[in-house]
Amino acid sequence: MTRLLICTALGIEARALRRGLPGDPAEVTLIRTGMGPVRARRAGALLPGFGALAVAGVGGALDEDLRPGEVLVASEVRFGGRVVPCPSAALLAGELVRAGMRAQIGPLVTSDHVVTGAERRRLSAAGARAVDMEAGPLAGAAAGRPFAAVRVIVDTPNHAMLGPHTLTGGLAARRTLARVGPVLVRWAAAAGPRRVLLAAPRSFCAGVDRAIEIVVRALERHGPPVYVRKQIVHNRHVVEELEQQGAIFVEELTEVPAGAVTIFSAHGVGPAVREDAARRGLQVIDATCPLVAKVHAEARRFAARGDLVVLIGHAGHEEVEGTLGEIPGRGVLVENVDDVATLPGDRRIAYLMQTTLAADEAGHIAAAIRRRFPDAEGPRTDDICYATTNRQRAVQAVAGGADLVLVVGSANSSNSRRLAEVAAREGTVAHLIDGPSDIALDWLAGARTVGLTAGASAPPWLVDAVVAELRGLGPVTIEENPVAEETISFTLPLRVRS
């Protein structure tokens, strides 16, 4: 384990932290620096050996979003004109939340005096979220090794701390500090050098790029609000970013004012939804992925000749609902091989696939259909889209050499979930994460080679954020081995073309 050194200013903080630390002094050293930057600087020059350094204790909030008892994990420490980044802040904050604490991240300012009034407002306006009196000088002592600054809030702009003696009444803060200690131990255990195997291709595909661009251009052309039925793509970060620009996401068209600009998501809709939109006079812009639209066309073709259309997919997924909506009463969903036995034996069968499935799993189901119905006709080309297939091949290529695979994507993203399943079938531990804060530190302890990919609906910057957080735990070497080059692009609808 990386040797952890925790610095705290006051005896009351040290006693609270010590209650939560392991008894083995070989793992953790806890020292008191004394209060204020002068004492912290002196202590920083005399620190014992360590592999990871944490400054922990109480602090003051600069903005009203932080409440007493909450924990602020510094994303950076500002002191004396210098800014020291703390790149593993999201990892640490996420772990604190999983341990039952309320934690946020943001810039921490170190001051040599108690900050109040106009100065507090000025620092907050500059983006700082909390203030302490020791982290700045100690941050420099880390000298490139993993560093964290964790402050339990004891005062806020509305309830300022009068002086150090008021800490004796901070029972909640002391209890929280005792719970912070074990999390810092796990943080140190996760520290160390790593190799990151980047799957390629990863992140956005052409259909997702097109759908997001449609919303952005619609907002530019028509102005907010623009309404989007369902999530434009299945990713929380994408949806939140578009909401900030003025998009309003709704579940059903009944939530949309008559005549409003309305976008159908990349997953497609059935004719009933289109008819409802026409009745309400909505200005519709269709962001359905062209590859999903191809499946819709094949479904209509098979149904028109009298076939029972078997759709291999997952119940409740919007793409499945849209495809079956194209052929009401003439299609049936099959989710696994066992479902094939329930299909009627007296009908001619044709089958299609949801575009975001795992290729090997869907292939097993298709084979079962062909065994039972030798004359069954499948799609003219594989329904599973090129991007889904490429990302699954790419994660397979890195999974075999990794101790751990992280798949960036939201929980409701089918293609992202399939990536985690494909990686796990290669025999490695795989986890789906919405972002860096979802990474449990225990996963990283002992994992020196990490495979990393992202679903087709996950923004590329999330992958960069994960790498940055891992760098906060130690040196990272990046290796990338592309399995395919993607050059496909899709034309935008006429209504949003420049």
Question: TL;DR?
Answer:
It holds the Pfam family LYTB. Its EC number is 1.17.7.4. Helices cover 36% and strands 22% of the residues.
Radius of gyration: 27 Å
For the largest beta-sheet, the strand count, sense and barrel status come to:
5 strands, mixed, barrel
Q: How much strand content do the residues show?
A: 15-25%
Point out poorly predicted stretches: none
Shape: elongated
What separation lies between the terminal Cα atoms? 57 Å
Number of strands: 20
Mean pLDDT: 93
Number of domains: 3
Helix amount: 25-40%
Which class best fits the helix and strand makeup? Answer: alpha/beta
Q: Write the CATH architecture name of the largest domain.
A: 3-Layer(aba) Sandwich
Name of the CATH first level of the largest domain: Alpha Beta
Neighbour order of strands in the largest sheet: 3-7-6-4-8
Task: Set out the fold topology.
Layout: E1 4-8, H1 11-19, E2 28-32, H2 37-44, E3 52-61, E4 71-79, E5 82-85, H3 89-98, E6 103-110, H4 117-125, E7 130-132, H5 135-141, E8 147-155, H6 171-189, E9 194-198, H7 206-222, E10 226-229, H8 236-245, E11 247-250, E12 261-264, H9 271-279, E13 283-286, H10 290-304, E14 308-312, H11 318-325, E15 331-334, H12 337-340, E16 349-353, H13 359-372, H14 386-399, E17 404-408, H15 414-425, E18 429-433, H16 441-444, E19 449-454, H17 460-471, E20 476-480
Parallel strand pairs: 1-2, 1-3, 3-8, 4-6, 6-7, 9-19, 9-20, 10-11, 10-12, 12-13, 14-15, 14-16, 17-18, 17-19
Antiparallel strand pairs: 3-7, 4-5, 4-8
Helix pairs in contact: 1-6, 2-5, 3-6, 10-11, 14-15
Domain Nucleoside phosphorylase: 27-159
GO molecular function, one term: 4-hydroxy-3-methylbut-2-enyl diphosphate reductase activity
Pfam families: LYTB, PNP_UDP_1
